[in-house]
Automatic annotation (TrEMBL):
This is EAL domain-containing protein (Putative c-di-GMP-specific phosphodiesterase class I). Residues 23-276 form the EAL domain. The chain holds residues 119 to 395 of 542 of the full protein. One of its GO terms (biological process) is phosphorelay signal transduction system. Keywords: Phosphoprotein. One of its GO terms (molecular function) is cyclic-guanylate-specific phosphodiesterase activity.
Length: 277
């Protein structure tokens, strides 16, 4: 834990340019991107493995950089987290998704949204109240939102995180452990926090039917979820074999290129017609 905090400290002091990619973007550019509306959301369908119905749409942010083209979240979320921009970013992403949901509702599309939260968001005491207020304005109920949470580092303010998560759960939001199997402390997380679902990282999903080692890890995660009464969503369902394997193993929901890529908001209706008939 001490070491984790030290790493955190070092990371947060690293220069903003700290490049994990060859497209290095800066914190200043990102700050401007948020105010200049260069961000946009894509939506990836999550479907029920029981009846194929659309279960939710995961909101995935992208950045249309004026010179560098499309920048993916893996290349700027960590920067937003390190540079104190994640609060604005998350609020932008959620507000935009809620507005989009209103447009869909008018077009007859009713669907839950899955949104990704960073630990930093939950370390803000005001987050829960902000979210409740935002929902009210969008005619959605807390159970129409699945909050996906990755523990990518130790919590800095665990009391506040627990406080937020407990309040969110009591209000009726659904809470999912994201990237289950890859996080820092997945087991500690599910011990202390009232999660109701897991998202199994794609590294445990694609090829689970083909490779024994992956299958063993997949099955043990499924067993744990079953014992705890949690729902499982499998990420990274890339082919028909993955799909059948998951169905045979009583997995609940699936997401991946086999079903749909992340879609622009205007493509979701077409996909639904094509998928659901
Ligand atoms: P994630 O939460 O694990 O989201 C799933 C990622 O897997 C997405 O990558 C998605 O495009 C990709 N994916 C989906 N199906 C498949 C598949 O079948 N095969 C493969 N190879 N990949 C698939 P993306 O959009 O690049 O997002 C990367 C990560 O960035 C997300 O991982 C999430 O942790 C983070 N992220 C995205 N949007 C947000 C956001 O608004 N806020 C925060 N805090 N994080 C976000
Ligand atoms: Ca996610
Ligand atoms: Ca994640
Ligand atoms: Ca993942």
């Amino acid at each position: 834990r001490e070491l984790g905090l030290l790493m955190d400290k070092l990371l947060s002091q690293a220069p903003a340019r700290l490049a994990r990619n060859n497209q290095s973007v800066t914190a200043e550019e990102l700050r401007d991107a948020i105010t200049r509306n260069e961000l946009f959301n894509e939506y990836q369908p999550v479907v029920s493995l029981v009846d194929g119905e659309l279960a939710s749409l995961e909101v995935l942010v992208r950045w249309q950089h004026p010179d560098k083209g499309r920048v993916m979240p893996d290349q700027f979320i960590y920067l937003a987290e390190e540079q104190g921009l994640i609060d604005d970013l998350t609020r932008w992403v959620i507000a935009e998704a809620l507005q989009q949901s209103l447009r869909w509702q008018k077009a007859g599309i009713h669907c839950a949204l899955s949104v990704n939260l960073s630990m930093e968001n939950l370390e803000q005491l005001s987050f829960t109240d902000w979210l409740l207020k935002a929902l009210e304005d969008a005619d959605l109920k807390p159970w129409d939102l699945i909050l996906e949470i990755t523990e990518s580092r130790p919590m800095r303010r665990p009391e506040i995180v627990l406080d937020n998560l407990t309040r969110l759960r009591l209000k009726g939001f659904k809470l999912a452990v994201d990237d289950f199997g890859t996080g820092h402390a997945s087991l500690a997380q599910i011990r202390d926090i009232p999660f109701d679902q897991f998202k199994l990282d794609r590294s445990f999903v694609h090829a689970a039917g083909k490779e024994r080692r992956i299958r063993v890890m997949f099955e043990s995660a499924m067993g744990l979820a079953k014992e705890l009464g949690l729902e499982i969503t499998a990420e990274g369902v890339e082919d028909e074999e993955d799909w059948h394997f998951l169905r045979q193993h009583d997995c609940h929901k699936a997401q991946g290129y086999f079903i749909a890529r992340p879609l622009g908001a205007d493509k979701v209706g077409d996909w639904l017609n094509h998928w659901g008939g």
